[in-house]
Amino acid sequence: MVHKYDTDCALLLKKKKKKKKKKNFFFLLSLFREKKRRRIEELNENMVVDGGNGDRSDWQGRWDHVKKFLERAGPFTHPDFEPSTESLQFLLDTCKILVIGAGGLGCELLKDLALSGFRHIHVVDMDTIDISNLNRQFLFRPKDVGRPKAEVAADFVNDRVLGCNVHLNKVFLFCEKCLYSSLCILICLTQLSLLIYEDGVLDPSSIIPLIDGGTEGFKGNARVILPGMTACIDCTLELYPPQINFPMCTIASMPRLPEHCVEYVRMLLWPKEKPFGDGVALDGDDPKHIQWVYQKSLDRAAEFSITEVTYRLTQGVVKRIIPAVASTNAVIAAACATEVFKIATSAYVPLNNYLVFNDVDGLYTYTFEAERKENCSACSQVPQDLQFLPSAKLQEVLDYLTENASLQMKSPAITTTLDGKNKTLYLQTVASIEERTRPNLSKTLKELGLVDGQELAVADVTTPQTVLFKLNFIS
Ligand SMILES: [Zn+2]
């Protein structure tokens, strides 16, 4: 759930920010408010009295801190806000939230949500607890090491916050229909496939707002996504550069950063000098190994007048550690929880739509409106243009799909319709099909029988739904 983002790009976007879309955003919000209102009405109609569900564990004044925001108007409330007791009941009894991730951000977020009155929280996390998590993932104790994060976090919150129901969920076992009809807000995961389009027009009642948060060291971001309406993660994929792998030429001949020196030792010197014997792999957890890499990196750095190579940095580069800072997690989780509260209650105007936080040096934060991409592969229905020569090989198309900055696919499966039949041109994920379709990669598009204007459907793990492309032959 860690997101890298490029501050320079973000700044550029900020400069481009226009006010014209403000009105539009309010309109979108009003649609969501309407959806919520309908749901409360439905609930009231179908309400089965089962002995005052939800009130059992409430004591006098328990939700006063929340009522202050919901039962009186104020200078920051939404223009259409009408104080009432309904919103609180909605939080307590109806609003269902899915939280993806019970790690550093997840622990904070679950606590924040539970104490804000949300009681129907589903949590998903496939990870187990590691001893190194305990310094910041405060729902876990030494006895929990090795147990599933989601399970321990759910138990902890349920024990601590009376009446709260944190459920475990394996996202892949989710019944899409129940989820779809009952879920109110989703945190930290794209779930665009749940949108319903009718003749290419989005059905606003199918929108499940998504709040996304990420941290990296002292930097973090939070964003509000109304899928299909405001910029989704794919719309702004260019803000997240691919994982940094330093170019070999830089490492080998022109190091400029301390990291380059460590990479030089790790990638080139270790296999050459075999300091701990033939075939001994570099172990990031072995202090003797790290010490050797550190010393050699210092030598390398001195050669190029680079300073700042430290033991910690060496270990960080070797183990590819992304530092986690508890306070950053707390700030970002709080921002996410606040946005959930604002959207669920419709009492306040939510973030529009991207917040950046940075306290590396002082404290800096700003928000900007990330704009939707007209031809976004995830949230629009428009086929994207692919420009290739008829003599281009299918391999080139595959390379384009994986290397293009706005696509960044992992193992795209390409299918098309030829003579009225579905044909798989290439598919990697099933070994037998991969073998059968591999020869296609070295064929030209023309040889494969593809024509100008041909539609290609591409499925990939990085997008929840199949992406359509239109092949345009260039001559
Ligand atoms: Zn999009």
TrEMBL record:
Gene Ontology annotations for the cellular component aspect, listed alphabetically: cytoplasm; nucleus; protein-containing complex
Example GO molecular function: NEDD8 activating enzyme activity
InterPro entries xref list: E2-binding, ThiF/MoeB/HesA, ThiF_NAD_FAD-bd, Ub_act_enz_dom_a_sf, Uba3_N, Ubiquitin-activating_enz, UBQ-activ_enz_E1_Cys_AS
Pathway: Protein modification; protein neddylation
Cross-referenced SMART domains: E2_bind
Annotated protein name in UniProt: NEDD8-activating enzyme E1 catalytic subunit
Ranges where the E2 binding domain occurs: 386-474
Catalytic function, reaction form: ATP + [NEDD8 protein] + [E1 NEDD8-activating enzyme]-L-cysteine = AMP + diphosphate + [E1 NEDD8-activating enzyme]-S-[NEDD8 protein]-yl-L-cysteine
GO terms for biological process, alphabetical: protein neddylation
The enzyme's E.C. designation: 6.2.1.64
Family classification: Belongs to the ubiquitin-activating E1 family. UBA3 subfamily.
Entry keyword Cell wall biogenesis/degradation: no
Active site feature: 249 (glycyl thioester intermediate)
